[in-house]
Amino acid sequence: MNRPISLFAIIALAALTPLRAGEDGNSGFTVLRRPLSKVEALNLAIAHNGTILQAQKEVEAAAGVAIQTKAIIYPRVGNTAGYNVRQDSLIEANQNRDIPPSLITLPPPIGAVEFGGGTSPKLNNQVWDADIRIVQSIYEGGRLLSAVRSSRLINEQALLVFQSLVADSLLAVSNSYDDVLRTAMQVSVRDASVTFFEAYLRDTTEKYKAGALPEFDVLTQEVSLANAKAQQVQAVGDYRVAKQRFVELLGYDLSPTVSDNLPLNLTTSLQARPYGKSLPEALTEARQNRTEIAALEKEELLRDEAIIVAKAGWKPSVQAFAGYQLTSRAETRNAGEELHGGLLGAQLSWAIFDGFLTKGRVDQAVALRGKTGEAKAETTRIVELQVRTAWSDLRTARAVLDAQSENVRKAERALELSQIRYNEGAGTQIDVLNAQAALTEAHGSYVDALRNNSVARANLVRATGAELHWR
């Protein structure tokens, strides 16, 4: 199993990436105007992509949860204080009623009051108390060690989930990069088609003016040129939109003054790179590397710890404490007189019967543990399906690409022969126009097949859980 990506490595990578658009104060595209390879684009996305940045915050939040989980193992320091004033009628005075009057020979002390047959000291009607204590849990029914293990598992699971989100985001950036290249190539294909029809129309128009060709040929070619220009305009529009989607995935904010035709210079060309691994190898790699499966393995361990915590309700809880206390004296009317001293002791609590509360918690924890096991099994099957599907898609894309490559060569030869036949009078203008349209279609299909092959390979790499920086 590959080790999870370190959050510190991600932060370090973000620090080494170039400035975001507009940060230099001069140009909104300092970064995007320069040549940009696919690997560089992926690195920029790691630093700026919104989904990845949100995922980083989730890791930080999980770290906070881990700290809360482990808090039970540390000593707790706290203090309490209270103050109240009571009416004298709430103070029970000792009236010495059991002492015979004949035995009371001493005069009452100063500060005493008489009650019927005897005397009683005045009790303090202002009662206050304050203390500070350090309490350390000694035994919590297994919860102490469980908290340490759970804290570690929470952090590890958060990093695995983060790695999954990063991989999905980078796959989207990689595929968007290929979409920009595809639409740029489609623009070139449509430009070539328009150039051909314009040149062919000029030649036909000259021959028409010389009386060598009918007006029908000119009109037919004008229609073909108009159709080619419409397709060219659509291709240019698709190219503009693809670039804007790509920049959004990189995490860059576009100024309202920036044109919709973004000045990107992508240097990694569309290539039909081989994958180089068999299907069994890909499946084995996926089972070992997919962070989604590893995250659920951590979830299973966390559910095991939850069962331990739930069962702790059947066991006693023991804490030791030490502290210092100050309290008001009772037999005085001076609220400033106080007693003080240290405290040291232990306390135990044990719910002998809690109305089946603990049993319900244990049943719930056991059921959730079983659910997580089923989720892991289902996720493993889904991952294997993703690998098999991506493997099949790559095979299909490669076969289509090979067929379209051969089709382009045939279409180029057909156009060449149609022009020869037309010039020799053995063919018609319609043959040439149809051959050119077929060649344009073949070129466009080849570009789509090239992009689909690259995307299928990237999807397979993602499905196997391989390295994030695809070459």
How can the largest sheet be summarized? 4 strands, antiparallel
CATH architecture type: Up-down Bundle
The number of domains: 1
Secondary-structure-derived class: alpha+beta
Task: Give the oligomer, counting copies of the same chain as homo and different chains as hetero.
Answer: single chain
What fold name stands as the CATH topology? Outer membrane efflux proteins (OEP)
Beta-strand content estimate: 5-15%
Number of helices: 9
Ends apart, CA distance between termini: 21 Å
| Lateral arrangement of strands in the main beta sheet | 1-4-5-6
Secondary structure: number of strands: 6
Uncertain runs are: 1-28, 95-99, 101-106, 109-120
Q: Rough shape?
A: elongated
What is the arithmetic mean of pLDDT?
A: 85
The CATH class assignment is: Mainly Alpha
CATH homology superfamily name: Outer membrane efflux proteins (OEP)
Helix share, percent: 55-70%
Order of helices and strands: HHHEEEEHHHHEEHH
Radius of gyration: 41 Å
